[in-house]
Design a protein that fits this description.
The protein has one domain: Lambda Exonuclease, Chain A. It is 43% helix and 14% strand. The chain contains seven helices and six strands; from the N terminus they run H-H-H-H-E-E-E-E-H-E-E-H-H. It has helices at 10-16, 20-28, 30-37, 47-58, 93-108, 133-151, 170-174, and strands at residues 66-67, 72-73, 75-77, 81-85, 115-120, 125-130. The protein has a four-stranded mixed beta sheet with strand order 3-4-5-6, with helices on one face. It has a two-stranded antiparallel ribbon with strand order 1-2. Helix 2 (20-28) packs across helix 3 (30-37). The protein is globular, with a radius of gyration of 16 Å. InterPro entries: Dna2/Cas4_DUF83, PDDEXK-like_dom_sf. Residues 20-174 form the DUF83 domain. This is CRISPR-associated protein Cas4.
Length: 175
C-alpha cells in the first residue's frame, strides 16, 4: 500500500474528520471535493475566495471563531446557536448543510445545540437552520455522501459548464 492510499493517507484522515469545507465542496461539486482531498487547492489565488475572507473579517468583528480541529465555526452564541457568515448574495442549500454539519459536530461533543443561523451581510438577510431529528439525519447522510466521494478511486465527472462559473477549479476542469 502506498503512502498516498494507506491507512495514514490524507484521504483516510479526511474520512475520519470532515469539516465544513468538505460539505460545501460536496454540495457545490463532488469533483471539487475529490480534487481538494488530493491536494489540488487553487483557492489561494481566487478573487472570490479573497472577497469572502474580507467579508468574514469585516463583519461581526466582536465574535470569535470556534475551532473544532476538523472545522472552524464562525461563532456560537449563548444557548448553543451556531452562526455562519457568507459573502454570497443568494442563500444556498449548501450553506444550510454546512451549518447542520457544524451542529452535528458540536452535538457529538456533548453540546445541546438549539439551531443555526446563516448570515448574509451583503444582502442584510439571515436564514435560520433548524436542528432536529430530521436535520440530524440529513447531516449524517451528507457526511456519508462526502465519504463516498472521498473514497472513490476515480475523479467524479464535471458539472455542466454553466454551473462552474466563479469556481476556482474551473481551469483544472475546463482548461
Amino acid at each position: 500500500m502506498s503512502e498516498e492510499t494507506g491507512p495514514d493517507s490524507p484521504q483516510e484522515r479526511e474520512l475520519e474528520s470532515l469539516g465544513g469545507v468538505h460539505i460545501k465542496y460536496l454540495l457545490h461539486c463532488p469533483r471539487q471535493l475529490w480534487l481538494y482531498l488530493r491536494g489540488y487547492r487553487p483557492e489561494g489565488s481566487s478573487d472570490l475566495v479573497s472577497f469572502g475572507e474580507a467579508v468574514d473579517e469585516t463583519t461581526f468583528t466582536r465574535r470569535r471563531d470556534v475551532d473544532l480541529g476538523e472545522a472552524r465555526i464562525d461563532w456560537v452564541t449563548t444557548g448553543a446557536v451556531v452562526h455562519e457568515t457568507k459573502s454570497s448574495r443568494a442563500p444556498s442549500p449548501a450553506h444550510e448543510a454546512q451549518v447542520r454539519h457544524y451542529c452535528l459536530l458540536l452535538e457529538r461533543r456533548g453540546v445541546n445545540v438549539r439551531h443555526g443561523i446563516v448570515h448574509y451581510p451583503l444582502i442584510r438577510r439571515t436564514v435560520t437552520v433548524t436542528w432536529d431529528d430530521e436535520a440530524r439525519r440529513r447531516a449524517v447522510d451528507t457526511e456519508n455522501q462526502a465519504r463516498v466521494v472521498i473514497a472513490a478511486p476515480a475523479i467524479p465527472p464535471r458539472l455542466e459548464r454553466r454551473r462552474c462559473r466563479g469556481c476556482s477549479y474551473t481551469d483544472y476542469c475546463w482548461g
